[in-house]
Amino acid sequence: MLLAEAKADAIMSRMNISDYQKEGDQPTLLITSDIVVVHEGIIREKPSSKEEARQFLKGYSGGHVSTVGGVVVTNLTTGKKLGSLDKAEVYFHDIPDEIIENLIDEGVVFRVAGGLLLEHPLVLPFVEAVVGSSDSVMGLSKDLANKLIHEALLA
């Protein structure tokens, strides 16, 4: 939540908010989010090396990982800010070393929290179950965002 709120604050600090607060204007919403990956009680950032990426992915193999995503919707017209968290868990079958090495060689694992790519075609066959929503694991819970949008429009 803190990172999603900080993103909203950083964006708003660069805007002239009074431009969005004119009487009769349609509401303007700012949506920000952030996600962390938690494995065995430890928050995992984007892997910074091949070895760290390998360690992360091997740790998920045959186990599970959790994600916690924060979403903040700010109604720029009224100044009201609403936010909430969404959690999900991903359970994996054993992921072969060859798949892990291919993911690392592609480099895409270095651009996402925990190196976790649920939607990647190399990863998807090894996903046993998702508890929660897949879109939450991928970075933004659509259901939560929609709920906050509707509440922000009424604020």
TrEMBL record:
UniProt keyword Hydrolase, yes or no: yes
Keyword Membrane: no
A Pfam family that the UniProt record links to this protein: Maf
InterPro entries reported in the protein's UniProt record: ITPase-like_fam (IPR029001), Maf-like (IPR003697)
Single GO molecular function: nucleoside triphosphate diphosphatase activity
The entry's keywords: Hydrolase
Lineage: superkingdom: Eukaryota
Protein name: Maf-like protein
Organism: Aegilops tauschii subsp. strangulata (Goatgrass)
